[in-house]
Sequence to fold (659 residues):
Amino acid sequence: MMQRFRERPGLRLFSLMLPGGFWLIVFFLIPLAVIGAISFMGRDDLGSPTLPWTTDAYAQAFDPIYLQLFLFSMWLSLLTTLATLIIAMPVALFIARMPKKWRNLMIFLVMIPFWTNFLVRTYALLFLLRANGPMNNILMGVGLIQEPISLLSTPFAVWVGLVYGNLPFMILPLYSSLEKFDWTLIEAANDLGANTVKAFFRVMLPLTAPGLLAGSILTFVPAVGSYITVELMGGGKTTMIGRVIATQFGTAGNWPLGSAMSLILMVIVTLAAVLYFRAGRGERMAL
Amino acid sequence: MPDTPTADIGVELRDVVKKFGEVAAVDHVSLAVRNKEFFAMLGPSGCGKTTCLRMIAGFERPTSGEVYINGEAQGATPPFERNVNTVFQSYALFPHMTVAQNVAFGLEMRGVAAPEVKRRVGEALELVRLPHLASRYPKQMSGGQQQRVALARALVNRPQVLLLDEPLGALDQKLRKEMQLELKSLQTQVGITFVFVTHDQEEALTMSDRICVMSQGHALQVGTPVEIYERPNCRFVADFIGETNFIDGTVSAVNGDFATLKTAAGMPVTGRIGGGPDARPTVGANATVSVRPEKITLAEKAPESGVNAHEVRVFSVGYVGSDTRVVVKLGDANIDVWEQNSVSTLDPNYFFRPGETAWLTFKPENALVLTS
Fold:
């Protein structure tokens, strides 16, 4: 048995890949294939997918209304990624610059919200933003507005929800990049005549690019397909593609259309991610 | 430094103190580095030498006192506005830039035009003999090559002063020796003031025009390598630079430039009074005589002059080729004696043997009486 194992590297490789491969096949490839199959089916009067094969679902999915929703979702997710980046950078920098013994505590504090149900946290946000909630009170107290404005059910509310929910996924990879960063390099840049801003853009940013790329992908991808946040913060008025897909599998009862839109979304996001990583590769090659 | 004309001073520290919390890393240090000088700051780790360098570079601000570069008080001037450049101990080369991009960085930051940048980067790499590696990344190079890139990256800016923080610390022994020579000739070639931090006394002695010996935040002595070695002004400097013997005792007589101590065993030892004009020993005070091993001679018979002549017992003998290192017992104290093997012989009787008695002598002018 062992003898055969040694003589056949192919067999060895196969057995090593078995557990991971099994996982991928059962939980990823098969569901994907099912979705793929359904997307090419029609539906009966009750909404169940039926044969024969057809591309009707794709024809529907490329309707301008849905295309606009795709674009809007990408745009809002891009804004979300940018905002998390701008907020997460100083936080990650601050933690990375702390004495070692404090850093783990800080990261722990960043993680703590995960222990509370996401739904509950989103309801808390709802409470903060509602008409007679703290946000409106503050704005009125400062004198920026005269009477409560409706913040909920707007793209702004969805955006706030997405930024809030995804912030840790940006902070953690950024922090792990910054923690390894050699701060002497900033001194070297200063020494060679670069002020703080130049040192940041010429030295720090390129060298922390891997964390930045990872954080951006980890934020952007879930944001595009997010459902709960959109459902609650958008209140049915502001919607994103994730919610539309969920509706197709639920109340709308159009599984083929939902499947088709899922696959289109997947292709678009994958393409975006690949392009993004390719743009960042030049920087990372040297590391 | 009253004997130095101020016009010739490149860098000056005036009564500089730097505290980290309650601890004074640099404690009232004043020193002046002359233009185009190779100046070493020498001391054990934690003595404050690197902190001094960082204050000159602008990475740290003195708690009190002032740093002057070219006669101008630096105050809170940030590093990027000072006309000095640093070669870091870890080199701190930018890993995402090629060698050429690293070297060009300082020029680009100062807004030098592209063709000029290209020309000067080429010259700088020529200077450190690395023009063929311009397109490499730092991690693709050896430690010695990285060291040269770091030098080129700093020198290309033609700074007033080049600060070097243990630049040879990460290199192996052989490369270190080569780089010592190279660095020294480079300094002569470019005519830039070098302030060089090291804990390696041999490095400081061979390369420097002048040395500042530091300990526990204090600048103990500033002088040429010969002055530092032959006329250390305190026990720490005598001990830190080279090897020496200390013979402790009480001052029994002071006579012009010389003083005589009596050891606990009652033996008289005479030496030249060292430690500067304010350190004259007084009769009855505790003092120590510092005498270097190579300045002591051993003889089989008692010498004619009785000054600093003591009968001793040979404890151990170590033959190291160029000289023979003998340890003798003077009372309870171990005294190191290095006898130069100026005669080529195979005769075993030429050398002392452990257990033999011998006569130790040294001239008073070759020993120093130190009171601190």
Notes: The mean pLDDT of chain A is 83.
